[in-house]
Amino acid sequence: MELFWHRRDLRVADNVGLAAATGARDDDRGPAAPVFVFDPDVLDHASDVRVRRLLDGLAALRADYRDRGSDLLVARGDPETVLPELAGALDADRVVWNRDYSGLARERDASVRTALNDAGIDREAHHDAVLHTPDSIRTNAGDPYSVYTYYWKKWTGRETDAPAPTPEASDLVDADALATTVGGDGGALADGGGRPDGGVEADRVAVGDLPSPADLGFAEPDADIGAAGTEAARDRLDAFLSEAVFSYDAERDYPAREATSRMSAFLKYGEIGVREVYEATERATAAAEERTAKDDEAADGDGGGSDSDDDEGGPVAAVEEYQQQLAWREFYAQVLFHNPEVVTENYKTYEEGIAWRDDAEEIAAWKRGETGYPIVDAGMRQLREEAFMHNRVRMIVASFLTKDLLADWRHGYEHFRETLADHDTANDNGGWQWAASTGTDAQPYFRIFNPMTQGERYDPEAEYITEYVPELRGLDADLIHEWHELSPTQRANAAPEYPSPIVDHSERREEALAMYKRARGEDPEE
Ligand SMILES: Cc1cc2nc3c(=O)[nH]c(=O)nc-3n(C[C@H](O)[C@H](O)[C@H](O)COP(=O)(O)OP(=O)(O)OC[C@H]3O[C@@H](n4cnc5c(N)ncnc54)[C@H](O)[C@@H]3O)c2cc1C
């Protein structure tokens, strides 16, 4: 028997470590008992939104185990204490988990390894969260990549593993056996009899009993965070890959269109396996090739027209564009793996240091979505309402915070960490440091988004803006996109409840350029 420790992999399907521990892959192993541990150190860094999302993901995982006649063990405490005790009580041969590449998780895993060694219990860690491990793609000189385009060239077309096999009921310890061992009257843990030196305290482990957010010290979030779990992830992915993916490259930047997959929270909690997602995109590529061939035939039949191979884009390229986003996720995972300090430090060195302005009132207005820049405010309010924000808008609000408000990217990162359901240390940090021109392969410091033209280009009819900023509903899109140019009287007449711009973009742009030049040790006047 083995103990499988779930962390950021809340699924039974395509779970590499679970497949190994349960014997789904190798008949000589298993059955396994699955456990999730609420670790106080992890909860210290959690937020209302993410705790709710985690609990929903765990409820879905538990249902998947119950469908297989088993259940999820739920424990509270330091994993380095709980896991050896639980493994001892269950008489498990081994504790198995999937690797997590962030610095904090690696430190925790090292302590758990030591504790298990001390207890004489075997353990095993698997690569699961990414298609290609952080160490597997390196430059020809053997260094990790810091430029995405080169990383992508090695990532794409590389051989990938097939999805890991899904355990069946016989691969899992059944629910009754779990209950007898762990809880209730006479359970090995309830009477402290699991190990010669005492078992796990009874209130630390329960069978399938999930706490409420309040039990963990969190509140119910106001945001509507959407469905969790493998089934919801698969439904969403199937719907996306059946149509939207074929125009993903052309549509993905328009926040009012349902043009992206919304896989981020599912991937963050590991409710769907990345091998499964990738395999589905490969099927989409085959479908795109078929479509292209049919279009070409039809064009030939019409006696001419353009060969779709010559067209820019096309469905095959659109699917590849989607795969590129999966590669960005792995690119940032390897950046974090090789540079754990980026969580708090600039990746790129500015020899004089960046003298951020950090105006508390401006930062607060940004968080509230009251900057008087409609696309920025719409994004910040989408974040508040849905614990999600469209990628293009994340780029716009991040640029606005760092280059219009001249505020340190860490304020933005912290706010996103608190409020995003899909917050992922590697991706969130990568996104912020990209926008602030401090990261790997970042936006050059002199490229500063103009929030008005971004709004005009990517939300021309102001549909996204007016969905989240009701004060501007009913106004002409042109008026909304010119908001910063209107006089105070025009603004007061058009939308009296909506704020005037809190800063002047053109002035702040100049200030930002000077700030970065000084940070680079250059004369801002030149
Ligand atoms: C400032 C900033 C902060 C961000 N914070 C996060 C975060 O905390 N968590 C997160 O998952 N993504 C983050 N992103 C990346 C991106 O915005 C989201 O992954 C994307 O909007 C999620 O929507 P989707 O699933 O519909 O994406 P799709 O366009 O459908 O992309 C598919 C998947 O690819 C990955 N992906 C897409 N874009 C990126 C990217 N730029 N970097 C890394 N992976 C990407 C995600 O896993 C995503 O689910 C951030 C971007 C910026 C600019």
TrEMBL record:
Disordered: annotated span: 283-315, 488-507
Protein residues bound to FAD: 248, 260-264, 322, 325-332, 422-424
Keyword Nucleotide-binding annotated: no
Note describing how the cofactor binds: Binds 1 FAD per subunit.
GO MF annotation: an example: FAD binding
Pfam families: DNA_photolyase, FAD_binding_7
Photolyase/cryptochrome alpha/beta domain boundaries: 1-131
Keyword hit for Lyase: yes
Protein name (Swiss-Prot/TrEMBL): Deoxyribodipyrimidine photolyase
Upper taxonomic lineage: Archaea, Methanobacteriati, Methanobacteriota, Stenosarchaea group, Halobacteria
Organism, as annotated: Halorubrum lipolyticum DSM 21995
Compositionally biased intervals (Basic and acidic residues): 283-296
Keywords for this protein: Chromophore, FAD, Flavoprotein, Lyase
Origin superkingdom: Archaea
UniProt-listed InterPro entries: Crypto/Photolyase_FAD-like_sf, Crypto/Photolyase_N_sf, Cryptochr/Photolyase_FAD-bd, Cryptochrome/DNA_photolyase_1, DNA_photolyase_1_CS_C, DNA_photolyase_N, Rossmann-like_a/b/a_fold
